[in-house]
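User: I'm new to structure prediction. If I give you an amino acid sequence, what do you actually give back? Let's try with this one:
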Amino acid sequence: MDLVRANWIAVDWGTTNMRAWAMGGGDKILARVNSDRGMGTLNQAEFEPALLELIAPWLHETDVTDVVACGMVGARQGWVEAPYGVVPCEPFSGESIISFSPWDQRLRMHIIAGLSQAEPADVMRGEETQIAGLLAGDQGFKGVICLPGTHTKWAWVEGEKITKFSTHMTGELFSLLAEKSVLRHTIASEGWDDAEFSKSFNSALENPVEITAHLFSLRAEALIGDLLPEVARARLSALLLGLEFAAMRTNWQGQKIAIIGSDRIAKIYQQAFLLQNEQPIMFDAEALTLGGLINAHSQLQLKELK
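Assistant: Good question. You get back a string of structure tokens that encode the predicted 3D arrangement of the chain. For your 306 residues, that looks like this:
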């Protein structure tokens, strides 16, 4: 195995997982590693050992290595709290990145702050870095960026600034209903039906006030009809997504739309937009996260030169 010594290290540290990249000069990737030691599994004293366990082979014995990190590592329950920036603003700047020296003198940490919004109250951590990665490749982007997940973010961008954003708990609601409610007897853990999703999504989008009644009909139809579990899974997803899209309709209609994500849930959001004759641009989440971290590292270097 070749010996890797990083020029600097990029880290995406979420609630459940951490991933790190050993970086050479600029944007050259030398190595990549993953860990399941996310923020939610650690107390404050465990962050530094968890990071060293992953990146120690990349460190120089005498030189200091910069580590640029985004995500929940900067939350109140994280390693060091990075106070939120306030929209409207750029995704981050050199001044909004919190820097400190941990116990291990081979490291210098830099944590990207998340963003907040006063009205309606909202926060994000990690997504701002992905948005920065998108803007690094398309500085003139103007429109809405959808970041699907357990808590899906919608962000409006203009003039390289995030002007506002909105969080929707659609993914968590799906999990709670499918796994904890009476619908757990009805919803398959896997499987899908595209035709059912299309029909139910369009219906939910046009009549969102009826969705709570339609939810229980899933159970009733399974008991007295022949509703298949995988069809029920697609319908449940469609009903909840239709509710979200109905709430956001005036914000995405007629806009340039980008989706950041490459997993199954991102493709479901893409399908929903296509059903409305919208053509979203798809971006890989990991690539944009790394792009945002590279942008942050560049800003830190410029700040040092001033």
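You can read the tokens as a compact description of the fold. Here is one thing that stands out. The chain is about 40% helix and 25% strand.
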